[in-house]
Amino acid sequence: MGDPQGVRKQECGRHHNQRMSQWSFGRLRDLLEYKLKRHGITLEKIEERGTSGTCPICGKYTKQTGRIYRCGNRECGFSGAHRDVIGATGILDLAVNGQFTPGRRLPEMVSYSRPVVLVPMRSHKKKAA
Known about the structure:
Elements: H1 5-9, H2 14-22, H3 25-37, E1 68-70, E2 79-82, H4 83-97
Antiparallel strand pairs: 1-2
């Protein structure tokens, strides 16, 4: 799990600072640790610096500006994956290998879970009088 302390301490304007101060990251971490402990898994903090800017193919760091990753290495030219996917695989790579490994595999498909209502809606049929 990445450690957002550096992000939370940046001065980024009044509204952003307010959102960061209200972010209950510690609560999320505690719940995740609790759930993982039940399965015998420990949660490890990983320094996330450079994870969303390091190319998964060639390993070169390039400062990113958009949401879609684009490698700055002319020989590599990798692009097309969302920067958050690159960052998540970078954190995994650091946790498993201790460094960024060139040629790491990315997930073939990324799906986002959205919250759904589990209680069925009541039927609005009118009763016959």
